[in-house]
Amino acid sequence: MVEKRSERWLRSWGIVGILLWSFAVDVTGNEVIAPWAQTEVMVRPLAELFKQRNDGYRLFRPLEQPLVLVLQFPNLTRQSAAMNRIAALVEKRDAPNHRVLDDQELLALVTAGGKRAETFFLGHDYRAQDLARFFTLAKQDRVALNQEERTLFALLQYHSFFVVLAENSWGAANPEKVLVTIPASGKGSGKLDLESWWFTLRHELSHGEFFTNARYRSYCEQAWAKLDDKVQKVFEEEFANFRYDVTNQELLVNEWQAFLWEPWVGGFIDVRLRRLGESLESLRHRFLYGIDTATEPITYFFENRAFRNLPAFDQQGRLKIDDEKQISRERNRWR
Q1: H runs (alpha helix) in the chain
Q2: pLDDT at 293 over 50
Q3: Which of 169, 189, 213 is the last residue of a domain?
Q4: Which of 213, 239, 258 is a domain's end point?
Q5: What are the angstrom distances between the C-alpha of 301 and each of 174, 213, 229?
Q6: Widest CA span of the chain, in angstroms?
Q7: Mind listing the pLDDT tens digit for each residue in 225-237?
């Protein structure tokens, strides 16, 4: 009866309810995984996602990427609490990849890189199997997860990311499913300005395309292999400076294809490339040329002009793009 009452309560209160319910579970000490409330998941064309901003929790799924679930947190503080420990396990070279860090170890990892918890990552992207492995290891190692991490587990359970393999052990219900997270844009502590929000979302969605589109992933691997060794070394060294695990070849290629469209952080890479007679712009041009001239379609991701070109922003920080026709075309294509 208690479980049924809580489910009705969660359906009534949506995402606020799930947060309060998670907190209540923590206070009472009961190891109950709260089911995710029936919060609306917006399904929109990629071109329209950037017009659907608000400053709170939000769930949406791009029409063109049906296996990608995007979770927006209200700020960097909430996102870091939910995601940093996962990032340490999956992506960071200075963290073990066979166990989950406790709070003290995670803090030491973050500060060793000169970061704060809130700026450890601006966005995240993980496959279902990596998320399942994280929660399985955390349970087996008896690492106490915080409120946001438990709420994230409930969200992923509700949206069928996991299957139970054994007691306290989970696997991916669909290995191709991907979770992408970003913080909200707007004024206030822990929020991104519009430009940073836009580039972060675009960066993370490009990772979603890499994970869920095998043809695109293969194309990226081939394009990376064709680069001059000195050019590859620039990216490897810069990614190592970001403390990525560059021994992970898939992670390396995935970050490379995303960083081709990074105007700020990528600027440091561009300086080094130009000393070799190369540039991010020329790499982007050749990357897109290969996609455009392929005999079979590789990806629709770059048919969105804002994703294909580095966008411009007006003085108010608004994206300067005439996307109404783009939105209409994408809606019709994916209906």
Answers
A1: 2-28, 46-49, 76-90, 103-112, 128-140, 147-158, 194-212, 214-225, 229-241, 249-259, 265-274, 280-292, 305-308, 324-334
A2: yes
A3: 213
A4: 213
A5: 22, 10, 28
A6: 69
A7: 999 999 999 999 9
